[in-house]
Amino acid sequence: xxxxxxxxxxxxxxxxxxxxxxxxxxxxxxxxxQGLGRGKINPAEPVQGSxxxxxxxxxxxxxxxxxxxxxxxxxxxxxxxxxxxxxxxADDQCSVxxxxxxxxxxxxxxxxxxxxACGLGGAILRRDPLFDFARMIAGIECRHHxxxxxxxxxxxxxxxxxxxxxxxxxxxxxxMFLAKFGKVQxxxxxxxxxxxxxxxxxxxxxxxxxxxxxxQDIAKLCRELQVVAGGKPFFLPCRQAGQxxxxxxxxxxxxxxxxxxxxxIKLVFKGEKATKQASMYRYIADYPPAENYTAAH
Length: 297
Fold this sequence. Notes:
There is one protein chain. This protein has three domains: 61 residues, no CATH class; 86 residues, no CATH class; 105 residues, Orthogonal Bundle (Arc Repressor Mutant, subunit A), CATH 1.10.10. The strands form two sheets. Strands 3-5-4 form a three-stranded antiparallel β-sheet. Strands 1-2 form a two-stranded parallel ribbon. It contains twelve helices and five strands. The protein is mainly α. The C terminus is likely disordered. α4 runs antiparallel to α5, α8 packs across α9 and α10 crosses α11. Helices cover 53% and strands 6% of the residues. The longest helix is centred in the first third of the chain and has 33 residues.
């Protein structure tokens, strides 16, 4: 009674057609595909001559999982690339600099703040206060483009030691301070969050003081990043800016466009999605901030 259903039903796909499509997709002949069940090809090995050397599983090629894994990997690669760029800029700023035996009152005030923040007798408890202290001093050097001489490093360490009183252990020596200093890979202040923490304590640029708080916050962040970058442009991914300010990244992108309209920042390089490179800006309000702003605060 079912003999009349031997022909293909209109609108459906036959098994042979499916086999042809799968074989063409993975670069095999239909005979090779049929031989998978008879041991002619090892399913654990990639197919020779296929477009992407796709490993064959027992039943299904998990293309969707592969796509999601690739997208996750691309996001991580973007973050790693941005972090490497940040560190490279720190290295560039610290590479050719003057060595000093003494510093001015403004830098001394920053050193006193670092001593107070990392002193063992202070209110802030840290896992490794001496390393954090070395990291903060390294950040001060990079921001002001100088290097401490051996005598100045000794003086700075003794100030930390005096602040800590009798609390330092036998390992908290000047030699250990120098050793920890050499291990610093990311000077304090060369992360977006720490830059924003400093920016929040300072007044907003005059051009945005009467504007909404969100614009004031991101303007202060841009000014702080310009101080860190010196005379060079700074890069600011809108996603990381949004994370630092606690706002959606689309809102951060809108704020950055608004600051360009207000002549607070200038776009130097527009980020490219293909190369995964973030946009770069220059702070132009109250320019140059690296000298005028730092000296006044």
